């Protein structure tokens, strides 16, 4: 059985319950199976090269060993992307002034495990992702979290969603230039989030933290291509659907616990993505497994968000490759199949 190590509602990786992952799935899974069944040595070689490529010359690439480290890595990733984009846009200002257009800042997304989805945990997480207190605004879907956050750090401009939608909260006229964090927004708040985005100065980055709706996390490319493939007109997509799918994941850390009856041992794993530069969709999602000493090793990497089935197949192949007990392999496969549908979302909330 695969379960998340933080308490959880089903969704983030459920393999079949979400419409916009359907269309290309079979083909991708076939290819993925072919890739992952190659010998472990090639896997190992591929893993190290991927790691090097992700690491580049720039610090973070190892999965976090604590919640604090995850928060810190995530804050760094957001800061790098927001700053790089601001540098670019300030050099474009002269041109933009001639054209009188302001390009919308980035739509970024962060996914982090929290101990619980209570107001205190939520506000602590959000505040630890803020890298520029003076210029940042944080909007919480949950009023209580907004209150706790304001008590904890008065320097950061803080609103509940209801307050942010009031006329007084004029984000367009605001002097602030930093990111606007939208924290803990659920499916029910999407339409309000769309309204709110229209009130935000378009040059500011919007960072969605632990949203409770499913999306591919690639800035909308997969979603758009699936709409086109289905024969629908891209212009017919509702504003809310566009909004939900336009975020690019800059950081994602999803711990998994695997109960493995066949080998009589439990194992851990994680899905991990940390963008350190360039277009967020260029950094792969990494599928990691922990050894008995709790060290992570990479057993797969994918350009799109791994789904339940991808994770099952990857873990299954990793176990099969390292196992002396080959006759146990069929039994593992069936254990995995049973639990395929209920991979949890560790980020609290329903959906």
Automatic annotation (TrEMBL):
InterPro entries: DUF1995. Residues 17-45 have a biased composition (Basic residues). It holds the Pfam family DUF1995. One of its GO terms (cellular component) is chloroplast. Residues 1-45 are annotated as: Disordered. Residues 1-16 have a biased composition (Low complexity). Residues 64-312 form the DUF1995 domain. This is DUF1995 domain-containing protein. It comes from Bathycoccus prasinos. The lineage of its organism: Eukaryota, Viridiplantae, Chlorophyta, Mamiellophyceae, Mamiellales.
